Amino acid sequence: MFFLFSRIMSPAPTDATEYKPPDGGWGWVVVVGAHISIGFAYSTPKALSIFFKDIQEDLGASYSEIAWISSIMLAVMYAGGPVSSVLVKRFGSRPIVIVGGLMCGVSMVTASFGRSIVYLYLSIGIIGGCGLCFNLNASLTIISKYFLTKRPLANGLAMAGSPVFLCFLAPLNQFLLGDFGWRGSLLILGGMMLNCCVAGALMRPVTLPCNPAVQKNTEKTSKHNVSKKGRCRSNARKFLDLSFFKDRGFIIYLIGNTMFIFGAYAPIVFLSAYAVSQGVEEYSAAYLLSIMGFVDMFVRPGTGLIANSKWIRPRIQYFFGFAMVFNGACHLLCPMMKSYAFLVGYAVFFGIGFGMVFALIFECLMDLMGNQRFPSAVGLVTIIECFPMLLGPPTAGLLVDIFQDYKYLFFMCGAVIMSGGLFLIIMNIYHYHMLEKEKAEHNGAPSQNVENQDGVSLSEAQRESTTQTNGDPQDPSPDDSEPDVTDHF
Amino acid sequence: MRKVAVLKSQNSTQNVQLLNPVNLSLECSLTADHNNLPNISAFWSQDGREIPDSRLTVALENQQYHLQRLFYISGEEMLGSYSCVFENGVRADFILATPPFGEVRDKPVVSYVRDFVVLPCKMEEAKPKPLSWRWFRGNKTHKEQISEQPERFQIHSEERKSKLKVINLTHEDAGVYYCGAVYAIGTTMNPIELKVITYQEPLKPFIGILIEVVLLVAVIFLCEKRRSKKNTSKGNEENVDQNNIKLQEEEKGAEEGSSMRQRKV
Question: Fewest Cβ atoms nearer than 10 Å: which of A84, A90, A246, A353?
Fold first, then answer.
């Protein structure tokens, strides 16, 4: 088994016309900006639930009607992925994050004047969700532009924003609620979300070097791009770039990820209720989630650091699969935890597993897709992940209602996540095996002196070999030359 | 109804929930200690004051001193704390009350001038249903009942829930409101504090944060403009040489053992 993992993936550059990512310097400031941006994106839908009880009373709505606010926000945040990808490719990350921050601020401020539940659906759910979507997508993209060798660490640090901000927003929201009521709190929260604009301002576009090879390409390809019709067509083509579905690695990642997302959120939603049902008092049960979040905060950068190491980086897809299996195993063992001490232990391990997966979730996609295709890929992945994310917790809730027992929920989630992880590991072994076979077939082609310096992945080697032999089919359209121009924004 | 307290050497307290007027028999049994006195004196007290003509001498029977009294609890004024006190100081307290509310809200409800607010009140499933609901405002000593006035107060009550909607708030509306769950024997009160503030209060921190954001964004962009001006003025001469050197390096394929990745064109 170890022998299978000991295949060293040959490294290679992603695209021949690519610049060298700075891998440091201003990049770390950009990581701070991404940390803030991603932090708000993931923690706001959860932190808003603190206001729900008061909003429910004032607007006379039922609990499920109120809970839809968070669901709509999350759904729009994920479903807006493709739109966000197109905008990021066209304008670069900085303006998109600034616009996203403005939208979030505006959404919260308008929500504070809300008189009906539908008004809140529109302002918080749709406008707020759009703003967060722009934030998320653009932040991930700019990390992929600034880092390559230290990218797992950068990703881990940026994704750590989610637990850090949740830890900080939850007590802050409680405090604001007591002093200003829910309307004033939403107003102030809107102001705070404008700090995403500051994060966006930090995301300086990467300046490309003046490479004559690049210039030749831009001259050639810009001639193709004369007619407006052609541009519109190619834009539409990129809106939902279905060519991704021909990529084996992408399909494997997508399936594994979908299974993970389906089972990931339900245990969080039901953990307190489960603890209360086991005889733990309500305050201590709520504390379990804080423990999980606290552990998550440190595990994400830690995982990034480990994934960056020489030994793990070439096998990062396997590490991702292992993290998922670990997470699933935690859930399967949870029903055996009856006492509070054991539940605390479960919360700690849950935090570790959850943090590991989320630190790697976008890093692995960047690793598979490479710099140029990542923005479109992430948009496609998020819109597909929308469905399991919305279906997961209600399905789990249904299980609880039918069987009147929480253990089936944990069994289901654990089983789905664990199968997802095992699927990833096994299919990746197959995938890399096939890639090596194809590479061996190409061995007669012009010599590629790939050196094993950074040990990235075999999928990237495959990309380089196909670009060299087939004359760059991975370059989807002439519009790719536009980032060269607009990145000087 | 019958309530018994068994005592040895320590005091005991019991909560008794009452819904209707009832004949209540309270009993205290004190286990004899090593003294084994044949007789011991005891009395009953209500809310700390001894009930007149209640002092008795109790005889020792089966190692126990048994004291019993029948009370007729007719109305709210009869509720309170009843105790049997023995000569050696040991006592049992019976606290007679209507069903209490489970969750008491410790934080005030905050709302805005000219806005409306809904004050909720709930009696849990586990407790008995009240006969009706009433709302009061005031302080602990003097409470005034709130009656329905179409422009100011609206009360909406269900079996276990009641809501008071206060419309067109002013600063005078701030204070403590009491929701009362009415039972045959009395009313349980639940205090809810209402705070009324103007829109300017949250606006101040909001404007503060807005100014901070605008300042930071301006500073970041200014710094960047300055850096790029410095770079373009300095590096214009060096740029051409640097590009040549870069191209040479890439062709040679140098940089062995560095952390940056190598590109073979």
Answer: A246
Q: Give residue-wise pLDDT tens across range B35-90.
A: 777 788 888 888 888 888 888 888 888 888 888 888 888 888 888 888 888 888 88
| Range in A476-485, B18-27, B31-40, B253-262 the model is least confident about | A476-485
* Contact residues, chain B, for A195 at CB < 8 Å: 209, 213
In this structure, are residues B88 and B63 in contact, taking their beta carbons and an 8 Å threshold?
no
How many CB pairs (< 8 A) connect A and B?
100
pTM of the model: 0.78
Q: Is the pLDDT of residue B260 over 50?
A: no
Q: Indicate the DSSP class of residue A50.
A: G
How close is the nearest chain A Cα to the Cα of B202, in Å? 5
- Bridge partners for B121 per DSSP: B162
Contact A60 B264 (CB under 8 A): no
The bridge status of strand B12-17 relative to strand B91-97 is parallel
Partner-chain residue, chosen from B107, B205, B246, that has the shortest CB–CB distance to A178? B107
CA dist B19 and A371 (Å) reads 73
Tell me which residue in A209, A210, A453 faces B262 most closely, judged by beta carbons. A453
- DSSP states along A430-479: HHHHHHHHHHHHGGGSSP-----SS---HHHHHHHHHHHHHT-TT---GG
pLDDT over 90, % of chain A? 47
Whole-angstrom distance, CA of residue A180 vs CA of residue A112? 11
Q: What is the DSSP code string of B36-70?
A: --SEEEEEEEETTEEPTT--EEEEEETTEEEEEEE
- Distance in Å, alpha carbon of B150 to nearest chain A alpha carbon: 18
Total Cβ atoms within 10 A of residue B77: 8
Q: Nearest chain B Cα to A214, which residue?
A: B265
Using one digit for the tens of pLDDT, what is the confidence trace for A372-420? 888 889 999 999 999 999 888 888 888 888 888 888 889 999 999 999 9
Residue in chain B lying closest to A178 (CA): B107
Residues linked to residue B111 through DSSP beta bridges, in sequence order: B196
User: pLDDT tier at A237 (50, 70, 90 boundaries)?
Assistant: very low
Contact B246 A209 (CB under 8 A): yes
User: ipTM score here?
Assistant: 0.77
Could B206 and A57 be called an inter-chain contact, meaning their C-beta atoms sit closer than 8 Å?
no
Which long-range contacts does B75-83 make (Cβ < 8 Å, 24+ apart)?
Answer: B75/B21, B75/B185, B75/B186, B76/B185, B76/B186, B76/B187, B79/B18, B79/B185, B79/B186, B80/B46, B80/B47, B81/B46, B81/B47, B81/B48, B82/B26, B82/B44, B82/B45, B82/B46, B83/B44, B83/B45, B83/B46
Domains in chain A (CATH in brackets) are 21-206 (1.20.1250.20), 242-443 (1.20.1250.20)
The pairing of strands B187-197 and B109-112 is parallel
Q: What is the pLDDT of residues A90-120, one digit of tens each?
A: 898 899 999 999 999 999 999 999 889 999 9
Is A149 close to B206, i.e. CB distance below 8 A? no
Per CB-CB distance under 8 Å, the chain B contacts of A179 are: 110
- Interchain proximity B264–A188, CB inside 8 Å: no
Q: Which residue of A has its CA nearest to B109?
A: A181
Shortest CB distance from B263 goes to which of A13, A187, A201?
A: A13
Q: Is some CB atom of chain A closer than 8 A to the CB atom of B150?
A: no
- CA B206 to chain A, closest CA, distance in angstroms equals 5
pLDDT of residue A6: 52
B52-61 contacts, C-beta under 8 A, 24 or more apart: B60/B32, B60/B36
Q: Which of B162, B252, B262, B265 to mutate to test the interface with A (most CBs of A within 10 A)?
A: B262
Q: Tokens 């276990």 label which residue?
A: B160
A181 touches chain B (CB under 8 A): yes
- The H-or-E segment that residue B246 falls in is helix B200-252
